[in-house]
């Protein structure tokens, strides 16, 4: 029998709660739902008003995975949606605005991915993202070295970037912006990636070409494009263990590099509640209007 629960006045059917999704650690679907419920206060502001794309893995990361943008069949009528214009036509996507919607979506077993713009201003980015993706045998240690260089470069333009783990192999740098065209942000991010490669040629590559990426950190600037999305802060990832794309401090980044030890930057679902108790949301500056700066060369 499928359990029925009520979340803030909304009735939800929660299925297969005992199913083990992350076999390496025995992490069950019930634990997935519990994680999202406990992380909701920090997670929801990063989802709110942004059309969500889902990476679904109903049988766990070892099973079938599929990326979904359209509103899935059976979506409750109280779940808010937004019309999104894409190159292949107009569609509707989910907006995760509240805890009931978050728990309904989490029951589908999903990663959350969001664009750098909000539904009421499509294509106007209010943040910049740089995805630092190490090519084996490079790992997050090398990503930390690239991140620290990019932090200083961004500071030269008046920015104070935040940093989070990707929940996979690398890091994401995030900068709050005064809203500006996504194409302009992409061009600026590409410039940063090219500069990083010139300054650190043994470490960084800015092109996606697979043959160039072993042993180097690919600075992916393309996720600033209006059509692209990035793993939302605090989302679980479809990895062998329940890792989370979670914010870290710059001291932790520097310590990872100094010790050449990637393990402290592998954050799992049980790690997040204690970190939130200790630090709060380290990405809170993304919501502070005083922290948002204009893109260099942009009006305003």
TrEMBL record:
The yes or no answer to whether the keyword Iron-sulfur is present is no
A GO molecular-function descriptor? ligase activity
Kindly state which keywords UniProt assigns to this record, in alphabetical order: Ligase
Please give the Pfam families that the UniProt record associates with this protein: LigD_Prim-Pol
Domain of life, per lineage: Bacteria
Domain DNA ligase D polymerase stretches: 28-261
State whether keyword Nucleotide-binding applies.
no
* Entry-linked PANTHER family: BIFUNCTIONAL NON-HOMOLOGOUS END JOINING PROTEIN LIGD
What name does the UniProt record give this protein? ATP-dependent DNA ligase
Query: Whose protein is this, by species?
Result: Streptomyces silvensis
């Amino acid at each position: 029998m499928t359990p029925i629960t009520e979340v803030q006045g909304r009735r939800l059917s929660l299925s297969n709660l005992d199913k083990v999704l992350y076999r390496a650690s025995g992490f069950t679907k019930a634990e997935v739902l519990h994680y999202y419920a406990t992380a909701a206060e920090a997670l929801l502001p990063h989802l709110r008003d942004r059309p969500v794309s889902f990476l679904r893995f109903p049988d766990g990361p070892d099973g079938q995975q599929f990326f979904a943008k359209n509103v899935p069949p059976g979506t409750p009528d109280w779940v808010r949606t937004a019309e999104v214009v894409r190159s292949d036509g107009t569609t509707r996507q989910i907006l995760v605005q509240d805890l009931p919607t978050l728990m309904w979506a989490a029951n589908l077993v999903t990663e959350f991915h969001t664009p750098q713009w909000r539904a009421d201003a499509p294509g106007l980015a209010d943040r910049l993202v740089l995805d630092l993706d190490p090519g084996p045998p490079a790992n997050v240690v090398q990503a930390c070295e690239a991140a620290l260089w990019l932090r200083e470069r961004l500071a030269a333009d008046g920015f104070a970037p935040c940093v989070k783990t990707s929940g996979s192999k690398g890091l994401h740098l995030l900068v709050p912006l005064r809203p500006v065209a996504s194409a302009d942000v992409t061009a600026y991010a590409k410039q940063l990636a090219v500069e990083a490669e010139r300054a650190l040629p043994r470490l960084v590559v800015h092109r996606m070409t697979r043959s160039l990426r072993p042993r180097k950190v690919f600075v992916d600037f393309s996720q600033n494009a209006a059509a692209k999305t990035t793993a939302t802060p605090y989302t679980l990832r479809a990895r062998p263990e329940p890792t989370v794309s979670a914010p870290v401090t710059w001291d932790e980044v520097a310590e990872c590099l100094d010790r050449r030890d990637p393990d402290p930057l592998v954050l799992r679902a049980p790690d997040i509640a204690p970190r939130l108790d200790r630090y709060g949301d380290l990405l809170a500056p993304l919501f502070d209007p005083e922290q948002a700066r204009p893109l260099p060369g942009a009006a305003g």
